[in-house]
């Protein structure tokens, strides 16, 4: 390598021939078994070595420098050839999970809001609005008029809404 850098063309040809053999073995062991891929990688590496030979540190051995270039060429090829074959998990429907955290948070908030209501108003609200029982049945069971049940449910509903908004001011 040193003689080739000093302008010795015969030494440069011997260097390239020796590197071609070593790189051929290197890529044969590491490259995927595609037809001619190892040869293509050898050629790419030799061209990179030719283009970068002026950056070679004369105090260092040439083989590790050449193998480092070869390694990067192999990595570049593997990256190029795998593009589009892999998708991140967040784009894969097989791993998709419904995010029901908002529903769980809402359920918890409503349960806490209901627990803060007076017992009678809470029972009427749950029976009419959540369980969808007929107002007439709820009124009969509670010993109230239908109008009184509707008013009590409405007021409880307003208190719950106020708590959920965070104001805490109940009508």
| Level-2 CATH architecture of the largest domain | Orthogonal Bundle
Poorly predicted spans: none
The name of the CATH topology of the largest domain is: Rna Polymerase Sigma Factor, Chain: A
The largest pleated sheet is described as: none
Quantity of strands, as a count = 0
CATH H-level name of the largest domain... which superfamily? Answer: RNA polymerase sigma factor, region 2, helix turn helix motif
Helix content: 55-70%
Overall form: rod-shaped
Number of separate domains: 2
Beta-strand proportion: under 5%
Task: Kindly describe this structure.
The protein starts with a helix and ends in a 6-residue tail after the last helix. It has eight helices and no strands. The longest helix is centred in the N-terminal third of the chain and has 22 residues, at 9-30. With 171 residues, it is mostly helical. The chain has two domains: 2-89, RNA polymerase sigma factor, region 2, helix turn helix motif (Rna Polymerase Sigma Factor, Chain: A, Orthogonal Bundle), CATH 1.10.1740.10; 101-165, Winged helix-like DNA-binding domain superfamily/Winged helix DNA-binding domain (Arc Repressor Mutant, subunit A). The relative contact order is 0.07.
